[in-house]
């Protein structure tokens, strides 16, 4: 009996050591599909006509948008990852100015300090940083100009991975320090360490739908936010403010320039602060951040307000950068700067991909604002030029997931490369459904009479590379006549997504629609994304090698083969051996 008990305990220990075994059992018991079950037959969930397609923006007098601090106390506090051992803390002090004549304040007039430590109320370290102001100026009579409050950025360095820190920010000499906040650093990059939950949201805005999205997101308790562009929609206004509109060119056809009401940026910072002051938010620019002004200057708000790890990742531009979050390497790509294969961004991307050690960060996730794969009529084939320049290198280095926004709806693709189903290609997911004022997109390019003209959907940056399909069911046509085979699931609804990496090969993706706020186990779309390194990475170039990757010779494979890791095989053989011993004891 003792031998049997010992053998059973040993078996339990072996099973517990097998992450793969536990994951497979959990997937089996929960009946959540995996990408190994794909490619999936396309599914469309159409817009619910009982719902409104959108809502108006919240006014600046709304409690979540108005200023709630006095004098030079910090507001709009936000965190961003710098490295596994460092964190950016950003905030704003003072009052912005808006009118015909504005004078920037001296950014050095208020100090930039962060007190922090591992115990509440006990701050053992002080970090100091830089401060800056920016202006949005218009060379047209009657348009109002804007100059910001003081924007502070402090990098906290020498942090311990996987540790909670308490902090205050501000200027202690006034004194004007914030209330205490806290954050937790991510675990050290490793194939066994991952953030608990990563929220993914795009095209958020500041509407009542945006409020539902953020409230739902907070309820899901993320450890990081991936914001894939189009943040405030401040450019849906005239410089004098007033009421925001869902279609700028329709409402203001005679505007001399695409105007903005910059105080919406301040309102957005306050709106997000309860979340971003405790959870790092990683942003990438979208078209609504372009915001042209005098002298041909663009993106001034975006570039000034957000700290990103550009320098830390070898990038010379805040428009594209990379960072690690546990065992995930994220690459943030810029669609509104040069993306040609001969340009600086592509050169940086190639170097960054070559530097990745997949034995340390097995998961590779990319994000950019506009989607390359999109079956909605809105923005259809808009960024084909970027896809033609960059898709191949992302495929060659086996990027696992690509997140996008821009299209105001949800869509998850089957694994696809060059419009062909491929078991080693990335999963593309569009989450441009944050809730902005431009309303949800409902028309599909394959709906009767909804196929756009090649003259539609011209990008704000880059060329036009649209063409008819040269192969497959849509050969010779600009649009499919049914939902494309590479589109697995699409739905016109506002919401957000949560990515949970379970181990080095399994990650759970869940998309939450706003209509189902807080309902237990109620989700709009859910799937385990499964990496197959045995199939897809056997010929992958070693860390920092120049060797090229061969193209998969069988891209039409209808099912990604199932696999067992070495760990799972060892566990299985061990259990088999134990069962044999148990049988001998039982019958002896």
UniProtKB/TrEMBL annotation:
<comment type="similarity">
    <text>Belongs to the metallophosphoesterase superfamily. Purple acid phosphatase family.</text>
</comment>
<dbReference type="GO" id="GO:0046872">
    <property type="term" value="F:metal ion binding"/>
</dbReference>
<dbReference type="InterPro" id="IPR041792">
    <property type="entry name" value="MPP_PAP"/>
</dbReference>
<dbReference type="InterPro" id="IPR008963">
    <property type="entry name" value="Purple_acid_Pase-like_N"/>
</dbReference>
<feature type="domain" description="Calcineurin-like phosphoesterase">
    <location>
        <begin position="197"/>
        <end position="410"/>
    </location>
</feature>
<keyword id="KW-0732">Signal</keyword>
<keyword id="KW-0378">Hydrolase</keyword>
<keyword id="KW-0325">Glycoprotein</keyword>
<dbReference type="InterPro" id="IPR029052">
    <property type="entry name" value="Metallo-depent_PP-like"/>
</dbReference>
<feature type="signal peptide">
    <location>
        <begin position="1"/>
        <end position="26"/>
    </location>
</feature>
<protein>
    <recommendedName>
        <fullName>Purple acid phosphatase</fullName>
        <ecNumber>3.1.3.2</ecNumber>
    </recommendedName>
</protein>
<dbReference type="Pfam" id="PF16656">
    <property type="entry name" value="Pur_ac_phosph_N"/>
</dbReference>
<dbReference type="InterPro" id="IPR004843">
    <property type="entry name" value="Calcineurin-like_PHP"/>
</dbReference>
<dbReference type="InterPro" id="IPR025733">
    <property type="entry name" value="PAPs_C"/>
</dbReference>
<dbReference type="Pfam" id="PF00149">
    <property type="entry name" value="Metallophos"/>
</dbReference>
<dbReference type="Pfam" id="PF14008">
    <property type="entry name" value="Metallophos_C"/>
</dbReference>
<dbReference type="GO" id="GO:0003993">
    <property type="term" value="F:acid phosphatase activity"/>
</dbReference>
<dbReference type="InterPro" id="IPR039331">
    <property type="entry name" value="PAPs-like"/>
</dbReference>
<keyword id="KW-0862">Zinc</keyword>
<feature type="domain" description="Purple acid phosphatase C-terminal">
    <location>
        <begin position="478"/>
        <end position="525"/>
    </location>
</feature>
<feature type="domain" description="Purple acid phosphatase N-terminal">
    <location>
        <begin position="74"/>
        <end position="185"/>
    </location>
</feature>
<dbReference type="InterPro" id="IPR015914">
    <property type="entry name" value="PAPs_N"/>
</dbReference>
